[in-house]
Amino acid sequence: MKSLQQTIQERILILDGAMGTMIQSYNLREEDFRGTQFADIPGLMKGNNDILSLTRPDVIKEIHTKYLNAGADIIETNTFNAQRVSMADYHVERYCRLINLEAAMIARQCADKFTAMNPDKPRFVAGSVGPTNKTLSMSPDVNNPAFRSLTFDELSDAYKEQMVALIDGGVDALLIETIFDTLNAKAAVYAAHEAMKQSGREVPIMISVTVSDIAGRTLSGQTLEAFMASMQHVNIFSIGLNCSFGAKQLKPFLETLSNKSSYYISAHPNAGLPNSLGQYDQTPEEMAEQVAEYVDEGLVNIIGGCCGTTEKYIELYSDIIKDKLPHVKGKVNNNLRLSGLELFEKSPEINFVNVGERCNVAGSRKFLRLINEKKYDEALQIARAQVEDGALVIDVNMDDGLLETKEEMVTFLNLIMSEPDIAKVPIMIDSSKWDVICAGLKVLQGKSIVNSISLKEGEEKFIEHAEFIKRMGAAVVVMAFDEKGQADTYQRKIDVCKRAYTLLVNKVGFNPNDIIFDPNVLAVATGIEEHDNYAVDFINATDWIKNNLPGAHISGGVSNLSFSFRGNNYIREAMHAVFLYHAIAKGMDMGIVNPATSIIYDDIPADILERIEDVVLNRRKDASERLIEIAEELRNKETGANGADKVAKDAWREGASVEDRLKYALMKGIIDYLQKDLDEALREYSKAVDIIEGPLMGGMNKVGELFGSGKMFLPQVVKSARTMKKAVEILQPYIEKSGSGKVKSAGKVLLATVKGDVHDIGKNIVSVVMACNGYDIIDLGVMVPAEKIVEVAKRENVDIIGLSGLITPSLDEMVHVAMELQNQGLNIPVMIGGATTSKLHTALKIAPVYGAPVVHLKDASQNSLVASKLLNPSQKDEFVNRLEQDYEELRKTGKKNSVGTVSLDEARKNSLNIWD
Predict the structure, then answer these.
(1) Are residues 719 and 756 in the same domain?
(2) Considering only CA atoms, which of 789, 833, 790 is closest in space to residue 811?
(3) Is residue 296 part of a domain?
(4) Most buried residue, 60, 544, 604, 913, by CB count within 10 Å?
């Protein structure tokens, strides 16, 4: 016997007609549906057609036989509603396996009988899987659009039970039909693969969608093109249309499927449109004439009937298809295709995909506040504004240590689905927590993007995550991280991306067009020479990826590039425009940016453009200093300063005390007069070390204050730290001459990026700044487990431990590290830093589990200042007491938030105070 896959290549196949219509013609009574088996089941049983496979198998067998006699090549099992979700209405959900098994075996026996009579015309059985009476994409409660009556997992489990029984019963294919909600269909497809795995037998998957209006959208709002993108991940045997309309009305939508898909095409329309009584008046001959157009125009491979059709309709199809050629499958589309309610296709004509960044609690204080306060309507306005401003994809990130991240992600995505003007675009599910990504994938019917996965936990975990994302039908952002950490150089970037690409394509079977690499946009002009080529390395890596990893796309978080110039939005946006201009030219085709940005490359004045390009393209050694100069000029203009107010270069020295001159030199990073001023200070101070602890530390304190308030840029902070180091080197001989020996270490500091996190750029900057301030640094690197941190801290007898983390799971790991330190009886102060950390989280979660001081620090400029207070006996007690008072106040506000008296965002604002 030829297989279904072989037979469909030879001719057009005939599917049977409506099971329900045929059953109605038998005028069965309650007793027929109930039988003796279900005599004690409460409620009515009449109308539960699927139960007839158990109570009246003779009727079902007769219906199959009529269709087979009419010429059907494929008959559907009587199981359209035979899963727990629908059967619960009749209180017979525990019989689902039995219903499906019996229905499949009845159909199998009938089909095999006809095949035996004519082996040249094999007959096949399709397991009918309906959409259920619930929808995953819409709320049944008009007052609560985020509510869902059923979860993806619950529906998938119900489908799996049904499909295992159908496969065990001998079906040749699974027909997931009458799809009105793509998310329901995704759950069915997910279940189909699980069922095949359990049953040990692969069968083809047939998909058939129903449109709900003349616009060609499903009931849940998707266009057909968007639906096809959502189902692109499925190894589909055939895709088609059924129900909704008659053959005439369905034809334009069938043409869309035929022209734009690369699958076999099926259609089983209704017998025309129903009359006012819900009956179908179209005759078999009238329907056959309309169906003949499908065949004559080469639109179909499988043709059958839905509501209102009987064997009288199907028996006319044999003449219609005789000697007619089947539909020829189209070519596979090699573009990145995403979808919300509508299709977005990354064609070559679209050189850049703008991913809206404002629905991110880590990047927008306003959005975080709205989510905290459950002001979802206002939060949706932010998403809506991004779409209106031109965002082609919306990035959603709920990673915050004090939010119920998964719950908020699901709630907000469900709310987006209730807003068609937002839901029309694809969603990027952005989280560092795997369970949040999984939850997000299970509430979106469109084809989304997962941001992100990486090799940081090794190949096994990477493949596991990639396989799940592929099964859920999403594209994926792959960060250029591996077990060694973040790829920061050109060679590291291309090596990591090549390795990930090979695994995704060759082992996971990922569509290369669904792979989006983020080779790490890192901050330039930080004052650290090793960072100067970061933008160039990204651009060059982009060029290499485009030329060597076919199909792959390039994305990045553009705002990272200009972190050094926070506080000057014009310079930051201009840097982004320059970077994108050069990166896009080399193949960067996606990025997380503000869609409302107003600065474009051609609008940047020539003098500013030259200096920004010098930085971005690393064209000269003094590029950072020159950009800082022009940034300060722009800021002076904004604050009312003008050229007439400028003073001579060295005017700051005139009439200033030596202390003030040293402080100023540190703030500005000026080393020209250090020797002269320090010589003068030595004549005034009895000890050289007093100069360090006096005016020099005073200058560094001012640096920290200005940086924390956005009035200094990061490269200036690093330059100040190096000036401090130079000053200490000048004073060192005088300290030794006085018999005090070398300048003693300010303290021994252990730095580590905690387990699960590979980000280390910020930690490295802290290391440089603290080392310049006289601290001995032990840097353990990235992905450091708590056990190692404790072990090294004890062995090296460190004075301070610095914990770094950029992603939300790092917060939990920091709590774990603090608990381990406590368990070991250690009393070493801990400094907490990183993008997701906060003073509030530290007060609520970390400090309470550890007996020694735990201090949250906003940025690299503060570490040295706080460390000096923690290690100075005369300052420590006062500092720690104040710290605990502040933490206690934050804990109170956090508790008050639970009864609604103080917002958590207000507490967070308190957590942004700068230590003085």
Answers:
(1) no
(2) 833
(3) yes
(4) 60
Alpha helices in 2-95 (DSSP H): 4-7, 19-24, 30-34, 52-55, 57-69, 84-87
Q: Is residue 754 part of a domain?
A: yes
Residue type, 92: V
| Structure letter (DSSP) for residue 692 | I
pLDDT at 417: 94
My answer on whether 294 and 168 are in the same domain is yes
- Tens of pLDDT, residues 613-633: 999 999 999 999 999 998 888
pLDDT at 322 over 90: yes
Buried residues in 643-661 as b, exposed as e (16+ CB within 10 A): eeeeeeeeebbeeeebbeb
**For residues 153 and 395, what is the distance between their CA atoms, to the nearest angstrom?**
24
With a pLDDT cut of 90, the percent of the chain lying above it is 71
- Same domain, yes or no: 106 and 175: yes
Q: pLDDT tens digits, residue range 52-106?
A: 999 999 999 999 999 999 999 999 999 999 999 999 999 999 999 999 999 999 9
Q: How many CB atoms lie within 10 A of CB 374?
A: 11
Structural domain of 374: 352-446
Q: Write the DSSP symbol of residue 553.
A: E
Choose among 241, 359, 255, 351: nearest CA to 306: 241
Task: State phi, psi for 452 to the nearest 5 degrees.
Answer: -165, 175
Could you tell me what percentage of the chain is helix, strand and coil, using 3-state DSSP and rounding each to the nearest 5?
A: 50, 15, 35
Structure tokens at 197: 């795995």
Residues whose CB falls within 8 Å of the CB of residue 439, separated by 6 or more in sequence, listed in order: 406, 409, 410
**Token pair for 385:** 């504004």
Last residue of a domain, one of 737, 757, 778: 737
**Are 105 and 252 contained in the same domain?**
yes
Q: How far apart are CA 101 and CA 744, in angstroms?
A: 81
Rounded CA-CA distance 458/555 in Å is: 22
What pLDDT was estimated at residue 648?
53
Strand partners, 354: 591
Q: Are residues 104 and 229 in the same domain?
A: yes
Question: From CA 548, how far away is CA 493, in angstroms rounded?
Answer: 13
Beta strand 393-397 with 353-360: parallel, antiparallel or unpaired?
Answer: parallel
For the entire predicted model, the pTM comes to 0.83
Cβ-Cβ contacts under 8 Å for 611 (sequence gap 6 or more): 623, 626, 627, 630
Contacts of 729 (CB under 8 A, 6+ apart): none
Q: Does residue 479 contact residue 500 with C-beta atoms inside 8 Å?
A: no
Residues 759 and 718 in one domain: no
CA distance 161 to 150: 16
Using CA atoms, how far apart are residues 155 and 160, in angstroms rounded to an integer? 9
Mean pLDDT of 355-377: 93
In the chain, DSSP finds a helix count (H) and a strand count (E) of 37, 25
Q: Which CATH number covers residue 783?
A: 3.40.50.280
Helices (H), 78-213: 84-87, 96-117, 152-168, 182-199
Rounded Cα distance between 50 and 33, Å, is 9
Phi-psi region of 802 (alpha: psi -120 to 50; beta: other; left: phi over 0): beta
Residue from 195, 111, 209 nearest 161 by CA: 195
Number of structural domains, the chain? 4
Beta-strand (E) ranges in 341-474?
343-346, 353-360, 393-397, 427-430, 449-453
User: Which CATH number characterizes residue 669's domain?
Assistant: 1.10.1240.10
Pair 115, 250 in one domain: yes
| Active site (catalytic) residues | 757, 759, 810
Same domain, 728 and 751: no
The answer as to whether 601 is a domain residue is: no
- Chain centre distance of CA 192: 25
Partnered with residue 355 across adjacent β-strands are 393, 592
Higher-confidence position of 716 and 890: 890
Q: Are strands 800-804 and 830-833 parallel, antiparallel or unpaired?
A: parallel
Count of beta carbons in the 10 Å neighbourhood of residue 224: 21
In a domain, 334, yes or no: no
